[in-house]
Amino acid sequence: MKLHEFLFRELNRMEAEQGRRITNEEISDVIGVDVSSISKWMNGKVIPSKANFVRLALFFGPAVLNFSKDEIDVDLDLIYINQTLRNLDKTKRKSIREFTDSYRASLESGEISEDTNLDEFIVRKWAADHGYTITKLETSPKRKPAQEAKR
Q: CATH number of 3-79: 1.10.287, 1.10.3470, 1.10.260, 2.60.120?
């Protein structure tokens, strides 16, 4: 399979999932390249540069990197997160952005350290937002021993 065939297949899959047509303009807006470049890549006329392969991966996923002849060092987690966020509605994206800003501010102020467990931060933030104070947070649930079966 060639790159343009992969792009076309993935675009069709995404359109089917979303139930709408995705334009080259939309792809261009998301990844930050000219519409004409998108068209050339989709038609197989031009192979993207290394940097543009990374941009394509932000839209089409990391599998697109397999079509590059160059070794591309990229954080696949960031590509996954980007794709996941892009598929959420604006309200959910806004909530995640606000949470991320709060986490960053807490790190910068020294309220938490780099070692702080993210789950603990989430629980403490929720509690604070809802008027609760947590003095001690158990990181592993205490389980009661199973009752012996009665005969």
A: 1.10.260
